[in-house]
Amino acid sequence: MGDRKYAIIGTGALGGFYGAKLQHAGLDVHFLLKSDYEQVRQHGLIIESKDGDFTLPQVNAYNDADKMPQCDVVIVALKTIQNYLLPQLLPPVIKNNGVVLVLQNGLDIELEIAQIVSNVNIIGGLCFLCSNKVGQGHIRHLDYGHISLGEYSHNYEAEGITNRMQQIANDFQNAGIAIELTEDLLLARWQKLVWNIPYNGLSVVLNARTDELMANSYTRQLVEQLMDEVAAGAKSTGRIIADSFIQKMLDYTVKMKPYRTSMKIDYDEQRPLEVEAIIGNSLRKAQAAGVFLPQINCLYNQLKFLDSRNQR
Amino acid sequence: MGDRKYAIIGTGALGGFYGAKLQHAGLDVHFLLKSDYEQVRQHGLIIESKDGDFTLPQVNAYNDADKMPQCDVVIVALKTIQNYLLPQLLPPVIKNNGVVLVLQNGLDIELEIAQIVSNVNIIGGLCFLCSNKVGQGHIRHLDYGHISLGEYSHNYEAEGITNRMQQIANDFQNAGIAIELTEDLLLARWQKLVWNIPYNGLSVVLNARTDELMANSYTRQLVEQLMDEVAAGAKSTGRIIADSFIQKMLDYTVKMKPYRTSMKIDYDEQRPLEVEAIIGNSLRKAQAAGVFLPQINCLYNQLKFLDSRNQR
């Protein structure tokens, strides 16, 4: 692909951060914006980061996908609740045989992308990033930032490590972003859900931080049972998550600083929750394989109720 | 038993109401009180009721079970969270071969009573009563009031309708309290849980009234799934709850006026919740028969967390 041209679909706390890092490292990056368009077009992006602050006084800013150049790599960094926009946004921006890099949580997102654009390659990326948008075109990176990349293929057959993945990984690593390559994207997605489903879900339903959930023996047990159900979901699609992985996630969370999950932040800000991508799709994928995940189902219905009331 | 002497253990919104009705009808009733003792000893009880207001200027009030006479029928009308007091309160008050009438929600309460007092008969009563204590010795009866009575025997074998039940039913009916006699106490208790577990539980976890839970399709479905799990619990103990019964409860709740459940009222008043009697015992009884109720388990752990945080 030579010198790759990047597009960022969704220049928020995540897309803005990674896009700015790539441009800062010298790559050609094109940003699609909505509310921050005028500000960023005139004044660029400001990044405060624990790894070093920087500003980009000038960026390629767009408020219309049709005006963007066709790019080699299109990074989808919207919240999944906005994915209904992708049939308009993706086709004009992606080069034939280009890469759509999906930096979103949840399951089966790549399937949706594959239905929108054909003759492209799809790579999924799981971001372990703690960042907030603190103002228009102004992003604060608090912690972490590494990405786990995996190539998508039909039906989530494990694809191994492809050249495409390595090329993109090089670009990111040159920009100071840690990358892990995974041979099995679906397994990586289920693994991330082991943490995301219990903590995101319960933090909203019980109005609780991670430390509170772990300090109470009942929710501590419920978290573990929900993790076991995620593993049962993974197993229904042929992916094995070991008990030791679950134990590692529990231990890791106990040691973490008290943490308000991203879904809880969305809820507190009265933004729509990513319930479908993270929980609904997991339930449906297991159900399609004949496996019902009852406690996750309980959490799902509770969140759908709270999300709907929160949007009034 | 001839002219029966009644004791009321726990003179609150429920015990105070039924006890006052019995005394008002001419029966000999003895009331155990705690916080309202001085007020009630001096000024008696005031009952405001949709069936007609009345006052009892003089009642037999006690603040010590050891000072009470031995009674033919001892009505246990405490909240179940105070049942740890029964080993002190019950033995002095109950006549040999008398009746302990347990007017409490939940499962396996009679088992606990049987461990405390022997050579007594135990009758369980399920109250469909809407009443509040609005001041010291002052009770407001808002709606309903009928009681379903069933005789307890070892291991909850169905006992049929006994003479004892009919005698007590007569006393209540003479006092204007509607009584239904049930041949199978355990079935009646499971049936009441079909309503109590989903609505009490979800009303607290989701901060919602019954009408809100029924208006949202997700919680409407969750309520039904929880009811199905109660039926599975009942079945594990040999009791059959038909789908038509569940449908009747759903229809009935849709038609009800918007209702804040008793557990939600306890929660809002920062009183301890009856989670163990209503939900914990149901889970354990099914588990003892080899049946896990996963969505009820999820609700249970959530409620234990919220209850504990609420008591701080």
TrEMBL record, chains A, B:
Domain Ketopantoate reductase N-terminal per the UniProt entry, residue ranges: 6-153
Annotated GO MF terms: 2-dehydropantoate 2-reductase activity
Enzyme category, top tier: oxidoreductase
Enzyme Commission number: 1.1.1.169
Gene Ontology CC terms, in alphabetical order: cytoplasm
Pathways involved: Cofactor biosynthesis; (R)-pantothenate biosynthesis; (R)-pantoate from 3-methyl-2-oxobutanoate: step 2/2
Reaction(s) the record says it catalyses: (R)-pantoate + NADP(+) = 2-dehydropantoate + NADPH + H(+)
Pfam families listed in its UniProt record: ApbA, ApbA_C
Keywords: NADP, Oxidoreductase, Pantothenate biosynthesis
Family stated for the protein in its record: Belongs to the ketopantoate reductase family.
Function in brief: Catalyzes the NADPH-dependent reduction of ketopantoate into pantoic acid.
Name listed for the protein in its UniProt record: 2-dehydropantoate 2-reductase
